[in-house]
Each structure stands twice: as C-alpha cells, then as structure tokens.
Amino acid sequence: MTGMRRAMHLATAAGLAGLIWTGPGAAEPVWLQIEAQPSLPQAEERARDWAGMFPDIAGFAMSTGWYAIAIGPFADTAEATARLRTLRREGLIPGDSYVSDGGRFRGQFWPNGTAPLPGVAGTPAPEAPAPDTAPETAAAEPPPAEAPPAAPEIAAVPEPVTPVETLAESQRLEAGLDREARMEIQAALEWQGFYNATIDGAFGRGTRAAIAAWQAAQGFAPTGVLASAQQTQLLAAVAADRAALGLETVEETDAGIAIDLPLGLVEFDRYDPPFVIYRAKDGSGVTALLLSQTGDQNALYGLYDRMQTLALVPAEGERSRNRSGFTISGQSDSLHSWTEAHLAGGLIKGFTLAWPPGQEAKMARVLAAMKASFRPIGSTALDPSLGTPMTVTRGDLMAGLERRHPEFARSGAFIDDKGAVLTAGAGLDACTKITIEDEEAELAFADPALGIAVLRPKKPLAPAGIVTFETAPTAPGAQVAVAGFSYPEALTAPVLSFGTLSDLTGLAGEAGRARLAVHTLAGDAGGPVLDGSGALVGVVLPRAVDGTKLTPADLTEAVQAMPLVQVLAEHGFMPTASEATGTLAAEDLAVEAQKFTVQIACWK
C-alpha cells in the first residue's frame, strides 16, 4: 500500500453515512453481508426493516441475480470482522452473516436514490476532465501590458474547525461500549420516557427506535446511534434529574431492604413495624414506607387487607393479589399511591410511595427507580419491637400512620354457607364500596319497608357458622341479647348486650317490628337479636340520626324474625330454622354468636 493515497468522504445521500475510499489504487471497501433476497421488492422491504436498527444499511443487486443487504462500508477486513463478532454476540444479526469484499455487488438499490458508490464492482468510475485541446492561433497576441504590482495580501486567520463525528465513528465508539455502559444508556432512555423494554444491554430495534426518538426530540438527526456528545448529554440530563430528586441508594439493614429513595423529597422518620417510615421533606407532600415482616401466605393476605385501611392508600384504584405478592394502586382527588409487596422464604418485603396529584411525570420517574432498584438483603425482617414499646398491642402496630376510616360500620349475621349477610339497609345504597370483614361485597337486595338488606361477598366466604331463625314468636318480656360490634375501632369481636323484649310493635305501632329494652350503640345496628337458645328473633335497626327523635339509650327498635323469613325466601335465600331448645349460659351464647356475627363497613 506504499505510495497509495486514501481520501475520506462522507456519503450523505438518503441518510447513508460511511467512509468511501477513492483515487488511483485506493483500498477497496469491505462490507458485512447479513442477508440476501431473491427479488427487489423483498429486498427493499427487508432493507427498510434493517435500516431501523442499523443506519449504515446498504442494498446491492448481485451478479448472481439475488439482492444483498449489507452493513458498511468498513476500512478493512479487521474492522468488519470486529463488528461482525460484536453483532453476532449480541444476537442482532443472522448467524450466517459474513464479511464480503463486494466483488459480486452491482447496482445499489438502497438507500433509495443513492448514487452508485465508487469502489463497488460494476460501477463506472467518474470520468477525468478532458485535456485542453484548443488550437493555437496563427499569430501570437502581444503580451498584455505589465500591471502594477498588487498590494501584498494579508493572510486570513482560519477559523478553528470543530471536528464533526461521522456516523461511522459513532458506530465504532458504540461498538466499544461494554454491556454495563449499554444498560446505562437504556436506563437513561427509560428515565426520559423513550424506552420501555428490557434493560439488557442489547441494542435491538427497540433501543434503536428509542435513541432515534430521543435524538429527534433534541433536534438531532434521528440516526439511532448516539454520537459521543449526545451520549454525554443524555446521561448528564438524567444525572441532573436524579440529583434534583435526591435519588440515592438506601440500605435499611434492620428491614433487610435496599432501594433507591428520593431523599430530596423524603427523610427518615421512625421505625413502626412492619414499616420504616420516611416522611415528607420540605413540604414535598411525598411519603415512603418500607414494608418488612416475617410470615406466610396468610400474613401476606393480612398485610394486603391492612394496607387498604391506611389513609396513605386511597380506596379507588387497581388491586392485584396472588400467593407470592400483591400490588395496590390508589387514587383520589388529594393523593396517589403505589404499594407492592413480595413473599419469599418466609419474609414479606415491599414498599409504598404516596404523592399529591399534579406530579405524575416526576413521580413516575421516582417510582420506576424504586421498582428497578428494590431488592431484599439479608435473611431477616424488621424486629416487631424495634422503635415501639414491648407492651404495644396488635392494633397499635399501625400507630403513627393515619388509618382511613369507613363512612360507617355496623353489624350483620351470616345466613348461608357462601357468606351472604343479613343486616340493616339504611345508607348502604350510597356506599362506594361495602366490605364484610374486609372482604368486598355487593348489595344482593334491600327492602326499604322492613329496613333490611342482604349483602353477597364478591368472593365466596366460609363462615364458621350461620344464624338460625326462631320458629315461633317470642313473647314480650322474654330475655334477649343483641350481638354486635359496639366498639368497631377498639374490638375485633362482637359483644353481647342483654335486655328484654318489650313489645311486638314499632315505636309508631308498626306491625312486624319490636321494641327492646337493651342499651345499644351505632355499631350494633344490623346485628342479630337472639333468644336464650341462640335463635334469631330480630335484627337491630339504626337509631334516627336526623335529630327528629330523641329516644332513651336503653330503647332499641328491631325487625321481627317472621317477616324477615318471608322476604328472604322471596329473594332466593332460604333461612335455616332453629332446632335449639333451652337456655344457654351467657358465655356459651357469646361463643355461638361469634361464629355468625360479622362487621360491615361502608366506604366512600
């Protein structure tokens, strides 16, 4: 190659950029042939597909009658071979791709309208300019008068030239990136909202399309290959975003969790097992919880139910639960949140992020970073006694986190083995959601005249027992007991309130109702009224709350059992008749009542 001259040109037609060597004795370009098609339409279609991944795609008619699709050109075989190995290793080109000297290439069909490339077989070289053959004149013209000497020119100082990185140079730089650097670019594109596929370091069509979209958004030519300056700009922009949010990796060794947290928005508050609480910082309105506890599938489901009682988790939004984990998306006019937890090896770990509306773009980035970085560490969970007194009760484990409260809570009784519940009907039609012992339910039917309703769980339940109905009317003066959740916030089991059946009419003399000399509270509404054997003789009705009536605390109104049996049968529910006789001791009656008395909650 001694004495041979090599000139470098940039081919720009139809977006093709590459290095072309021309001139006498110039080195022939080398290509990486990746595919051949038998017809021109097929070849053009495939070239268009490949161009979405590789901007330096070219297509040539071959001397064999086929049409080649190739990447290049390359300076020499060594460069082409290095690119071949890289692309094969990443699985981006067919395994039978090979390095070609272009000896069989003829006319070029891709990019469309591209001028024939010098150095390709069958392409005519540009004609040299014709020598000057103008004839001499018969008489020589006299030489022109000698002009006065011109003033000496002042040499212009050349402007500094900033080197322009060609596409081929960008491709060579990209080929030298290791997998970790490529994954960093994909993660940055994901952060910027241009990439939503796997972060794997393989630059396939999805990554190329994302790069091109990012380039177009920044005003660059969408080549699909980052120039070194563009790569720097992309990574620097993401680094600046993360710095503004204060995203840092936090290792909570007590909880056994490592995760990226936005420490510009939240700060550590305290341990409140099973939570590590990060409160809002500088009025950001953002809160984060790390969830960590030991347990099995039942504990996981219990945490799932408990999370939905927190004010931090709005009632509306998608929910998903399986044997190994759950996700909860909460949305309201004042708060958005995301919760996820996973069960593995007897450990339940996860996190919650909550933020005010209007910050969706920023918080989507934060949430993506938290999801991508979350990982359990170690083999332990948060110590239940950490940060709390040893005398703390089970209900207090949620202390310090405001709980979301239902609009109202009342009582009811299971009436069949699928979990249908009989309760008071007032106000249930206005509930956004109704729950039976934290399980979502729907209104099967309501009877406004009687003031009762039947709820059906959306997923079948397995009651410990069902209430049975009296078969003969109870006489006034008989001893009765009301089973209900008198203190729904304090007690998780029903209590019995004892008294007597005063009258078999309502306060206004209504038939089918009864008056009880029993002291009841709001949570007892809907609860069963039981005789001494444990049979249902009525259902407690809510007290008037409009201020129009003021009744004694020990005067309670109820619906009698007989009209209940009739309306239940009309709606396809078959009440079970009681066969019990005699009178149960108070403690035995309480045990029986706990089997079928349940808590109902109305949520808005």
TrEMBL record:
User: Out of the domains of life, which is the source?
Assistant: Bacteria
Span of domain SPOR: 24-101
Q: Where is the composition biased (Pro residues)?
A: 141-151
Q: Where is this region: Disordered?
A: 112-151
Q: What is a single Pfam family found in this protein's UniProt entry?
A: Trypsin_2
A GO molecular-function descriptor: peptidoglycan binding
Low complexity bias: where?
118-140
Protein name as catalogued: Peptidoglycan-binding protein
Q: Which organism is it from?
A: Paenirhodobacter huangdaonensis
